[in-house]
Amino acid sequence: MNKIKKYLAYNDSVRVIAIDATDMVQTLREIHNLSNLATAALGRVAIVSSMIASTLKNDDDRLTVQIKADGPLGMIVVCADKNLNIKGYVSNPEIELPLNSEGKIDVSKGIGIGTLTVIKDIGLKEPYIGTCELLSGEIGDDFAYYFNVSEQTPSVVSVGVLIGKNGNVEKAGGYIIQPLPECDEKVIDKLESINVKLPSITSLMSEGRTIDDIAINSTGDNDIQTVYEDNVKVKCDCSIERIENTIIALGKEDALNIVKENGILELSCNFCNKKYSFNKEDVINLFRRKNK
Questions:
Q1: How many domains are contained in the chain?
Q2: In this predicted model, what pLDDT tens digit does every residue of 243-263 receive, in sequence order?
Q3: Under 8 Å CB-to-CB from 107, ≥6 apart: which residues?
Q4: Which structural domain range is residue 147 located in?
Q5: Is the pTM of this model over 0.85?
């Protein structure tokens, strides 16, 4: 299940986005052979990125989310497009840490102190780039802080990944609640009060709540209206052409030196781990074509 939905609540004055991303996070885990810690961290970032991607308007719009911090996981990158094709990676996918004092995966310690950057390429001369300091490293709080300081949009962000004893992702999902400009202050106060007391989203999902149920539970509006729904897909758009451009940027001399040392020049896509191999003849032909 990788269902994402958008809703309007309180007479169209509140926007809600909710997602069940269980299969998506499991797929990311399998592609990168992620540890439990890396699964929870990359999964959370991918979940929120998917919800942001659902707000893109044009087919060519692109989103990139980067977390650069000093924790052992290293950098986390997630890319998405208007059609909800998602790809992502974490620099150190094998890292594992002891559980925190609450007996939960210590995502905050794994990420550490750093910055969250959101890049939206939406057809303007320059892409929109918003950056903020990481508030907690727990991802939900960090994105809520980002929306508030970089987009001036007060938001509730809840995100979670539940991993079973067998190592598989049992539940993964999230929601974003954003009051629109015409929203009454009393409604905003109500939303804050509800979400302070609401259990985690994975707890709600484990109880059998659907994302429709969660949208109602998190807003307190039984008349919430569904305005959009789609499926999220883990899909990489790497290609031989992009890899060849990387080799060209490396330069002919350096590329041939690597082949001389290793017998082959092999590059892997960070996002899907697909390997591309070039022998000496391949490299020579590549630069010959380039120079025509």
A1: 2
A2: 999 999 999 999 999 999 999
A3: 37, 40, 41, 44, 137, 138, 139
A4: 3-234
A5: yes
In CATH, what number is assigned to the domain containing residue 255?
A: 3.90.1280.10
Domain boundary pick from 234, 255, 271: 234
What is the mean pLDDT, run by run of 10 residues, along the chain of 292 residues?
A: 94 97 98 97 98 94 97 98 96 96 95 98 88 96 96 95 94 97 95 95 96 97 96 94 93 94 94 94 91 72
Q: Dihedral angle at the C-alpha atoms of 150, 93, 271, 70, nearest 10 degrees?
A: 30
Number of other residues whose CB lies within 10 A of the CB of residue 223: 10
β-bridge partners, 169: 163
Residues 123 and 259 occupy one common structural domain: no
8 Å CB contact between 20 and 3: yes
216 and 75, same structural domain? yes
With the C-alpha atoms ordered 254, 255, 257, 258, is the resulting torsion angle positive or negative? positive
> 203 near 172, Cβ under 8 Å?
no
Determine how many CB atoms are found less than 10 A away from the CB of residue 19: 31
Question: Are 221 and 271 part of one and the same domain?
Answer: no
Q: Which residue has the tokens 């994975």?
A: 202
Compute how many other C-beta atoms are within 10 angstroms of the C-beta atom of residue 80.
26
